[in-house]
Design goal:
The structure is a single chain. The protein is α/β, with parallel strands linked by helices. The chain starts with 6 loop residues before the first helix and ends in a 5-residue tail after the last helix. The strands form 2 sheets. The chain has an 8-stranded parallel β-sheet with strand order 9-8-7-6-5-4-1-10. Helices cover 42% and strands 13% of the residues. Keywords: Lyase. This is Dihydrodipicolinate synthase family protein. GO terms for molecular function: 4-hydroxy-tetrahydrodipicolinate synthase activity. InterPro entries: Aldolase_TIM (IPR013785), DapA-like (IPR002220).
Length: 335
């Protein structure tokens, strides 16, 4: 675990590789329970079979908004237990976003005590008073904890920090060392780097990596919370091989590989089901049911209740058909 004082130096050397954002497998009546065996299997698969070096726990794909405080704590504990058993060096990242600063603090303290390496706080989902409100939120948590902190700037919050607002948080909260920029606005990330050059940035618009932004030091060599386990298998480690080329600065080879392997086409074929609900097409979401259905296509356990808990809708058949066809064309499942 990185303490607040050590956070920035630690981030520069330890945040590297694919970090899997884990889904929550539900079971029981209306999905009111969690299938812990399925969850343990998922963790072991990501760390022990795919050999991905990072885990990202209880965030959007996990549907944190539908989980109780106790469930969120236990999910992190199990991820640490199983992940470290498979790889003692796995970096465990915990998302402690919550509707109140007090709940966020409770989850952050738990992550610190449980052995997580870093905590990410999503831009608050409530009526935050802009960057000033988010800064106060971070300060409230940071003043009462001693663990590395990261920002998670997602449009699913309803408010996206400007580069200047993020840079101010970095300047005034020494524990903040990294950010996942999830708004798909790369020029804002470029400006944020200018304002806070030592901040470790993950830009979700991955085209910037092909443009040499890692070489230029604008972004870091880590995928801070993605669903990499849905894009490859141990037998076909397409995503890992692609990113190794990117991290080795073999950009032309990486682009050729992405095309020839079918990875780029898969991104087109899967369409926007992971992040877009048709009934609210202008809103970015983490559709838990879509991620879990894709996992089931690859043979991963998702629990006996395959849907998301409220407030998310059930995945329509059209989405399932699209996901099935995308995986067949990609070659990760049988034709």
């Amino acid at each position: 675990m990185a303490t607040a004082k050590e956070a920035r130096e630690w981030a520069r050397t330890n945040l590297r590789g694919i970090g899997n954002s884990l889904y929550t497998p539900f079971c029981g009546n209306d999905g009111d329970d969690i299938d812990w065996d399925a969850y343990r299997t998922l963790v072991r698969y990501c760390v022990g079979e795919l050999h991905h070096p990072m885990l990202w726990c209880t965030s959007g794909i996990a549907e944190f908004w539908s989980l109780t405080m106790d469930e969120r704590k236990r999910l992190l504990e199990v991820a640490i237990e199983e992940g470290r058993a498979a790889d003692p060096n796995v970096v465990v990242q915990a998302c402690t976003a919550a509707m109140s600063a007090k709940d966020c603090l409770e989850l952050t303290l738990h992550a610190q005590e449980a052995g997580a390496d870093i905590v990410y706080i999503q831009t608050p989902m409530m009526e935050a008073h802009g960057g000033e409100g988010v800064l106060k939120f971070f300060k409230y948590v940071a003043e009462r904890t001693d663990i590395a902190l990261g920002m998670f700037n997602s449009p699913s919050s309803g408010y996206v920090l400007t580069p200047a607002e993020s840079a101010r948080i970095y300047e005034e909260v020494p524990a903040v060392c990294a950010t996942k920029e999830g708004a798909f606005r790369p020029m804002a990330s470029r400006l944020l780097h200018d304002l806070a050059p030592d901040l470790t940035i993950w830009e979700c618009d991955t085209t910037v990596y092909r443009a040499g932004w890692l070489r230029a030091g604008i972004v870091g060599p880590a995928q801070l919370g993605t669903s990499g386990y849905l894009y490859e298998t141990p037998q076909h480690p397409v995503l890992s091989e692609y990113w190794e080329l990117i991290w080795s600065d073999k950009l032309s080879e990486a682009m050729d590989y992405a095309e020839k392997s079918g990875m780029d086409q898969f991104g087109v074929d899967i369409r926007s089901w992971f992040t877009c609900y048709p009934g609210r097409a202008d809103y970015f979401t983490h559709w838990g049911g879509a991620f879990k259905y894709a996992a089931s296509v690859l043979g991963l356990p998702i629990g006996s209740y395959p849907h998301s808990r409220p407030p998310q809708a059930e995945l329509p058949q059209e989405a399932k058909d699209t996901i099935d066809a995308a995986y067949r064309r990609y070659g990760l499942v049988g034709a």
